[in-house]
Amino acid sequence: MAIYLDHAATTPVRREVVDAMLPYLLEHWGNPSSGHAFGRAARQGLDEAHERLAASLGAEAREIVLTSGGTEANNLALKGVAWASKARGHRIVTTAIEHHAVGHSLRYLEKFGFETIELPVDRYGRVDPDELEAAIDDRTILVSVMLANNEVGTIQPIREIAERVHRHRGILLHVDAVQAAPYLPIDMAGLDADLLSIAAHKFEGPKGVGALFVRHGTHLLGQQQGGAQERHRRAGTENVAAAVGMAVAYDLARAEQAETVERLGVLRERLAAPILAVPGVELTGHPRDRLPGILSIIARDTDGTSVSQALDLEGIAVATGSACTTGSPEPSHVLAAMGYPDEEARGALRMSLGRTTTDAEIETAAVAIPRSLAMLRLGALAIAADPLGQAGPADRQRGIAARA
Ligand SMILES: Cc1ncc(COP(=O)(O)O)c(C=O)c1O
């Protein structure tokens, strides 16, 4: 049986979610904008999805904009605020470890005269709220900080950050909560953020659907023109079944959150202990303030791609970095910002557990992963010690022992 330890990339859709979606694919398939009975049935499902998702987030239904996922939610938040606030200023403050859906949106906005200030992070991937506040000036319109990082799992001190941002009148705070949503209790009534992004496929909902929370009264310019859907903030016929699925998936995730977080925390530690005991292996990210399911490491003298390929052959799915950077030769911008040189970042591996991860899977992985890491590391050291393969086995062993 294959073992899936890549839940930060995506999660399987749960049965209850599929069951809730099916009637909107097979029976109530009308266009929710149509005035007839077919349309009204679809509209009802769509309205209920807005309401249910809003209730789980401590928001109002009108504050939820459905999108095609986390990437679009982030694009809409940044570009929508930037263009709507252009007359007030052009500076946007962010961090060096954001997902590319934020980072690359900002690079795009720079082409139109917006200025981005990218804050550094510490060795654990945390932003200093004092440094963040110092970067805010009277031309600043927006601050965008992720709630938890997708590569190393580090959680940001978001309440402190929100408090600093809102000391300055008129500056908006966007939070990318895509990775955090399944595990941290998000309550928009208590969290002082103006915009917040989520994506259903990270919490056992369908792919290709997400939401942007936009606090009532926030000025946002829609980035997709056409019909009047989503209160003019996102044109295009809504994917009703996906919206229903997302609302159900998030509701279930919230209801089971405390239990899931506790169980995953225990399983992660069980997996971490033998892996971190392998010589040359180090934990990346914050030792405590991290998502419960993410175990990210650097294994010196190996490369993550070789390890993940070897594990794939054994039926264990892990990631070298985030899914979006796999296959790209660029080293992780997150690890670089945390101070890891390229040659160390090459050895990055991310194992991410999810609600459906079992004790038996972790028991197997806790043997197989350290074994692969140790073997590949020894192989790499042997090649480094004797690149032309001229030494005898005893010499090679001595070379490895000297380096290990
Ligand atoms: C932190 C973060 N933001 C945004 C995204 C993009 O979300 P989506 O895949 O739904 O476009 C991801 C996906 O991995 C993510 O982890």
Alpha-carbon Rg, integer: 23 Å
The CATH architecture classification of the largest domain is: 3-Layer(aba) Sandwich
| CATH T-level topology of the largest domain | Aspartate Aminotransferase, domain 2
> Which ligands does the model contain, each kind named once?
pyridoxal-5'-phosphate
> Strand arrangement, largest sheet?
2-8-7-6-5-3-4
Total helices: the number is: 13
Q: Give the CATH level 1 class of the largest domain.
A: Alpha Beta
Description:
By secondary structure, the protein is of the alpha/beta class. The protein folds into 2 domains: 3-7 and 258-403, Alpha-Beta Complex (Aspartate Aminotransferase, domain 1); 15-255, Aspartate Aminotransferase, domain 2 (3-Layer(aba) Sandwich), CATH 3.40.640. It has 13 helices and 12 strands. It has helices at residues 15-26, 37-57, 70-84, 100-110, 129-134, 158-165, 240-255, 257-276, 304-313, 333-337, 342-345, 359-385, 393-403, and strands spanning 3-4, 64-67, 91-95, 115-119, 140-146, 172-176, 195-199, 210-214, 281-283, 294-299, 316-317, 348-352. α4 (100-110) links the parallel β3 and β4 (115-119). The longest helix is centred in the last third of the chain and has 27 residues, at 359-385. The two termini are 34 Å apart. Residues 69-71, 74, 99, 101, 146, 150, 176, 178-179, 199, 210, 322 line the site of pyridoxal-5'-phosphate.
